[in-house]
């Protein structure tokens, strides 16, 4: 029976597979002396010695991509920094981690479609690759600004893939994943770039082709993030550099200039497939249109008839109704031909003034303009709020306590969500969640227009300073504040006026990143000596619950992490087959005698999308009972079968009773 790999995808091997499709001659199979497949210069880890591994002949690939003989490295335009190759390696390296559900910290766990992932966002992005590949419509991030006071994520690029898989549950010696990136550090900008590069690279994979990403940053790394995104998303997919006025007053203590703005860089996954939603027209803009001649087509405003790009064919005299002869300004011409002008006069689309003697202009009707206006790249704090507004919003939710210095105002996030041109069931991701302003804005927008957009927040449980206002209020980590903000914001939104079409989903499933549920023997069975076999009778860690296993299976199989999950008890009668009841059922109809049946705990995901049983003692009666449901997928514990004969027969039973079911084990 095929086993699930139970770790994040190996993006290096997937990239090699894509190259193999285009240039098969540049990919070769290699085998290490230990029986594992790898390049002699690469320590890429293979979980099973029999797995087929590929390597790239880079010299041949370079030649394939060149129109001349390649003899060595060539100068080219690109962004480079110390540690870039290691950052690329860490983006592609698989990890042996999982997401463990935490019901007690969740809100409406069984019904919500929102996710809050607690842990390192690099790990989170890797774990989400299978499930959310190409499914996220919009990403917003507000990463560390690298001011010298901010903390950045410390990623370990030194280990090879094998060590990374086995030790991926460990932190640094002090137990932290964050380090201060002071300007005294010789790799001040390099460390920040190395932190951002793999995260943005993985984030791009999650975007839909019509997806969009917004990145807030200050002047310190604005140039770096522009070059980084040009490389990852492609310079052709750059959309805009929005300037947001983040302060409502100057900083009088500034040494040189008062930095009153931040940048918001906007990149599309595929620029030709995404366009911003036009902003609604204001009354002030509409009032610029009047109807001075009672034209039945409604209000209009005059527009210049002349243009500066000269064309002799469009340079001709015009006689006004008063008899005055008018020529275009010197060096200019009219924007229409003589014939077209005559047509427009006949259609009453030319305005000569109240007395018919003014220079002619074109009548632009309000009914002819777009339904909205194209967004500008300068955002005034009066329109989208400023940092103090964001802080006040947090204080309002937390009984006068602010906790954060500069949380983004909800109004700013609402503008970003609006411009993203979201459909009403799209997915929004923020993997630097902070105080979860993004989640707040998603719920607020849904309440206003009846949408059911879903959010995925990712936040590291960064410890709060013991002297901080947050710690004194009982919040030990930033993630705790983030989750509580969503709880309080959701309740407050429900107290206001809500669209009747909104499903009122203010909940979220909390999933915490942890080491894999699988014991080391699962990933390196060849490393276990014969004398140790009795120690490793099970390949699952003893402290893990069945629901922990279920979520790792969902990740591995790429199944939506927000699908409804039902836990059932399957009672298999020893003489007559099986029947199913809810785990909380009090009916005694199924139990004529305690020894006449066996009970198994079964998880049913989204009705019959996936059925999982991680109990031991699985027999053929249970297998047949589950096959009657004809699920799309079914998974068992590899060591859970009552005998080897049952394990062998499982696939045959499903082939006969439910041939469309995919059967795997862990």
Gyration radius, to the nearest Å?
31 Å
Helical content (DSSP H or I, runs of 4+): 25-40%
What's the main sheet like?
10 strands, mixed
In percent terms, what proportion of residues is strand? Answer: 15-25%
- Count of DSSP E strands? 29
Structural class: alpha/beta
Mean pLDDT, as a whole number?
A: 82
What distance separates the N and C termini? 10 Å
Q: Segments where pLDDT lies below 50 for 5+ residues?
A: 32-51, 157-161, 167-176, 532-536, 582-592
Shape by Cα distribution:
elongated
SS summary, helix count = 20
What is the topology, as strand order, of the major beta sheet? 3-23-4-22-21-5-8-10-9-20
List keywords for this structure.
666 residues, alpha/beta, ten-stranded mixed β-sheet, six-stranded mixed β-sheet, 29 strands, 29% helix
Question: Mind explaining what this structure looks like?
Answer:
It is a single chain. The chain has 666 residues and is α/β, with parallel strands linked by helices. The protein is 29% helix and 20% strand. It contains 20 helices and 29 strands. The strands form 8 sheets. Strands 3-23-4-22-21-5-8-10-9-20 form a 10-stranded mixed beta sheet, with helices on both faces. Strands 25-24-26-27-28-29 form a 6-stranded mixed beta sheet, sandwiched between helices. The protein has a 3-stranded antiparallel beta sheet with strand order 12-18-17. α13 packs across α14. The longest helix is centred in the N-terminal third of the chain and has 19 residues, at 188-206. It is elongated and about 110 Å long. It starts with 10 loop residues before the first helix and ends with a strand.
């Amino acid at each position: 029976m095929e086993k699930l790999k139970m770790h994040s995808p190996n993006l290096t091997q997937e990239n090699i597979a894509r190259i193999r499709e285009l240039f098969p001659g540049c990919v070769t199979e290699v085998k290490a002396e230990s029986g594992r497949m790898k390049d002699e210069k690469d320590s890429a880890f293979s979980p099973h010695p029999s797995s087929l591994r590929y390597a790239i002949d880079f010299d041949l690939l370079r030649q394939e991509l060149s129109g001349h003989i390649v003899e060595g490295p060539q100068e080219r335009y690109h962004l480079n920094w110390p540690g870039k190759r290691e950052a690329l390696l860490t983006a592609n390296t698989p990890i042996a981690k999982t997401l463990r559900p935490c019901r007690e910290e969740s809100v409406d766990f069984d019904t919500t479609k929102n996710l809050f992932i607690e842990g390192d966002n690099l790990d989170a992005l890797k774990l989400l690759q299978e499930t959310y590949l190409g499914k996220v419509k919009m990403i917003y991030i507000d990463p560390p600004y690298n001011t010298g006071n901010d903390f950045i994520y410390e990623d370990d690029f030194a280990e090879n893939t094998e060590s990374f898989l086995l030790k991926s549950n460990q932190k640094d010696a002090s137990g932290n994943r964050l380090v201060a990136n002071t300007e005294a550090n010789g790799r001040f900008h390099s460390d920040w770039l190395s932190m951002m590069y793999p995260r943005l690279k993985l984030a791009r994979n999650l975007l839909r082709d019509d997806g969009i990403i917004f990145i807030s940053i200050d002047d310190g790394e604005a140039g770096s993030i522009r070059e980084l995104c040009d490389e990852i998303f492609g310079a052709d997919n750059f959309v805009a550099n929005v300037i947001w006025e983040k302060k409502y007053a100057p900083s009088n203590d500034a040494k040189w200039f008062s930095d009153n703005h931040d940048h918001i860089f906007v990149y599309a996954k595929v620029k030709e497939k995404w366009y911003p939603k036009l902003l609604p027209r204001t009354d002030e803009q509409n009032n610029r249109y009047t109807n001075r001649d009672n034209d039945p087509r409604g209000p209009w405003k005059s527009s210049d008839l002349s243009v500066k790009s000269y064309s002799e064919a469009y340079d001709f005299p015009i006689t006004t109704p008063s008899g005055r002869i008018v020529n275009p300004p010197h060096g200019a011409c009219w924007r229409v031909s003589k014939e077209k002008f005559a047509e427009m006069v006949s259609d009453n689309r030319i305005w000569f003034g109240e007395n018919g003697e003014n220079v002619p202009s074109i009548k632009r009707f309000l009914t002819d303009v777009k339904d909205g206006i194209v967004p500008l790249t300068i955002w005034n704090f009066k329109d989208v709020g400023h940092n103090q507004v964001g802080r006040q919003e947090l204080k309002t939710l937390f009984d006068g306590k602010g906790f954060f210095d500069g949380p983004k105002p909800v109004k700013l996030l609402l503008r970003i969500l609006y411009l993203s041109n979201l459909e009403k069931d799209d997915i929004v991701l923020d993997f630097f969640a902070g105080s979860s302003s993004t989640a707040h804005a998603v719920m607020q927008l849904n309440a206003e227009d009846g949408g059911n957009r879903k959010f995925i927040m990712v936040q590291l449980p960064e410890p709060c300073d013991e002297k901080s206002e947050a710690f004194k209020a009982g919040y030990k980590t930033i993630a705790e504040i983030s989750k509580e903000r969503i709880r309080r914001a959701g309740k407050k939104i429900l107290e206001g006026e809500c669209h009747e079409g909104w499903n009122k989903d203010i909940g979220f499933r909390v999933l915490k990143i942890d080491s894999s549920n699988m014991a080391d023997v699962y990933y390196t069975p060849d490393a276990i000596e014969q004398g140790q076999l009795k120690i490793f009778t099970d390949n699952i860690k003893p402290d893990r619950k069945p629901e922990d296993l279920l979520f790792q299976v969902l990740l591995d199989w790429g199944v939506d992490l927000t699908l409804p999950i039902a836990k059932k008890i399957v009672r298999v009668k020893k003489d007559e087959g099986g029947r199913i009841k809810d785990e909380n059922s009090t009916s005694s109809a199924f139990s004529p005698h305690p020894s006449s049946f066996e009970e198994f705990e079964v998880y049913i995901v989204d009705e019959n999308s996936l059925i999982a049983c991680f109990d031991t003692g699985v027999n053929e009666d249970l297998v047949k009972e589950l096959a009657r449901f004809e699920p799309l997928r079914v998974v068992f514990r590899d060591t859970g079968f009552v005998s080897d004969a049952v394990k062998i027969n499982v696939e045959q039973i499903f082939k006969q009773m439910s041939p469309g079911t995919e059967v795997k084990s862990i």
